[in-house]
Amino acid sequence: MYFAGPHYLAAWDLYVACLQLATTVAVAISVVVSVDRILHALKYIQIRVASRIRGRKPAQKFRFKSLPDGSALPHLYPMVAVQLPMFNERYVCQDIIDAACSLTWPKKRLMVQVLDDSTDKETRQLVDDKVMEWRERGVNCVCVRRTDRQGYKAGALREGLELLYCYEFVAIFDADFKPKNDFLLRTVPYLQCNDGLGYVQTRWEFDNPDESYLTKAQQISLNFHMKCEQFVHSSYGSFFNFNGTAGVWRRSCIDSVGGWNGRTTVEDMDLSLRAYLGGWRALFLEDTTCMNELPSSFSAYRKQQHRWTCGPIQLWSRASAAIWSSKIPFLKKMELNILYFFVRKSVTHFSSLGFYCLLVPLTVFTPEVCVPMWALVHLPVAVTLATCSFTPGGWAYAIPYVLFETPWES
After folding, report:
1. Which is deepest, 94, 172, 258, 395, by most CB within 10 Å?
2. Domain segments of the chain as ranges
3. Residues 166, 111 contacting (CB under 8 angstroms)
4. d(Cα 352, Cα 34) in Å, to the nearest integer?
5. pLDDT by residue (tens digit) across 72-112?
6. Set 116, 117, 174, 270: catalytic member
7. Active site residue 128
8. CB atoms within 10 A of CB 28
């Protein structure tokens, strides 16, 4: 028969060879990605042990001086602006305005700037009512609206910053975040006492992780990112990105590196990368937290993952040349281009989707191609357990975490 002839056999041999090559490459990439994640967990342990031996946490290498009673000596407090970018956030817009206006800080030294790009009339009215309420209570709260949404969030932040003439520091909160009253007291002094510090990022906490398996999987993933990755990079002095919210920037740092730019969907990573290349330092505060709400619908989660996945690749394509031409040490350039962007922000997603969701099923029907047990089971289990260990009780949700995280983050 024709299908048993040499043409068929040659085609099958070619298919097997291609599948073997693709599987070998995928296994190699998976090993690199897995080792990188496990090393993060080991570095975390090393930092914790070293901190106990020295009796000093990593953040304590930065100077911190508590501010006096603001009611008695308000002039000692720097001018701080709080920017609240939002778009059609009907159900949370008033809550974040309340939280921002309730921050402990002298009223004459604080400004709350609501950057409302909403197109929904009801949302705009809710924002206006809440802004007026706080203005009547003596808080300098203003609403800024644009005629167009050019640049989206980055454009709103950029235009809002142009109106803040005399403010030294700028705190940023997305609409679904809920900062505690002492947020500024726990973050701004670091910037005030350390001239080379460009921004301070605080750790996220979540108020709805037990709502569904989807929110629990997100909590596990983000806890590893916050508690391990951001903490480790900050402790080692490596690059870590501003997470777009729940942080405070030095105004002069933003201006010196060109301001907010809407060229990608990750304007926060873009700005923090330019700050790093410009010689500014950054600090992650693990003990200062800010509550927020995880996306509870699958459509919102998918859009978020799409932005977080595609945005860094967009940025890498535009910033790679700037990284190589910057004045940072050569090893730092290698770390950024190869380890940070290529491995963590690019290859990881293709590995997850291509290896586990495509190649492994194909090898089931191709006995000539064998995936090593350590690559198929042992290593992924080790990575999953290391990731889940940063969430209390996270190991019990390891399977839902893998089911949601592996295919949909790609």
Report:
1. 172
2. 64-220+240-303
3. no
4. 11
5. 788 889 999 999 999 999 999 999 999 999 999 999 999 99
6. 117
7. no
8. 12
